[in-house]
Structure formats: C-alpha cells, structure tokens
Amino acid sequence: MSKVQILSYAGCSTCKRALKWLGERGIDVAVRPIVDEPPTAAELARWVPASGLSVRRWLNTSGQSYRALGKARVDAASDDDVVRWLTEDGKLVKRPVLVKGNRVLVGFREDDYAALFG
C-alpha cells in the first residue's frame, strides 16, 4: 500500500489534531507543507471529485487569504478561478487534505478518518 499523503500547515491546530490521530494509530504519513507546495491544478482535477465536495468547499473560509479575496469576489468567481486561487495560495485551502489512494478527505473529522482507516 502506498503511503498516505497529508497536506498540512504547521501552524494549523486542526492539522496538528489530524497528525496526532494518525500517529496514535501508527499510520505512516508523508507530510507535505501546503503553504510551500499547494495542490496543483492536475491534483485538484483528481482530488476534488474524489473528495465528493465542490471546489468551493475546499476554501478555507476562516482564513486571512479568503478574507483578503472577499466573499463577493469569491461568489462571483468561476470554478476555474477558485482552482487557480487554490493552486496559488496554500493558506486558501481548507486543511488538512488527506490523500489515500483514490480517497481524499478535506478537513479533519475523526469519524471520517476512522471510517477510512477502520
């Protein structure tokens, strides 16, 4: 089985909780710093459908990057615009992003992680 990849931000408390959860279960993860290496357009083309979420649900709406764009601008943007923004600014991405094979989880909900690894 390939290693689980998690896109994470070191200053994110939710990312820390997810990494702690994974570590407590001995799950081998490759951590990718989301700010330094945001998802690419090709990755998003695969991951967004695999997550079962719309691309707009990938936005970190509580972060400074989102506030800088402004809700009105985001609401008026096309999905292609949103994808481009996500590839340009890792802090705009809701995190953590966990990739396990063809399964993708956005954010950390313990029940979802338990179902994926259970």
UniProtKB/TrEMBL annotation:
Top-level taxon: Bacteria
PROSITE patterns, sorted: ARSC (PS51353)
InterPro entries: Arsenate_reductase-like, Thioredoxin-like_sf, Tscrpt_reg_Spx/MgsR
One Pfam family linked to the record: ArsC
Protein family according to the UniProt entry: Belongs to the ArsC family.
Protein name (Swiss-Prot/TrEMBL): Spx/MgsR family RNA polymerase-binding regulatory protein
Source species of the chain: Sorangium atrum
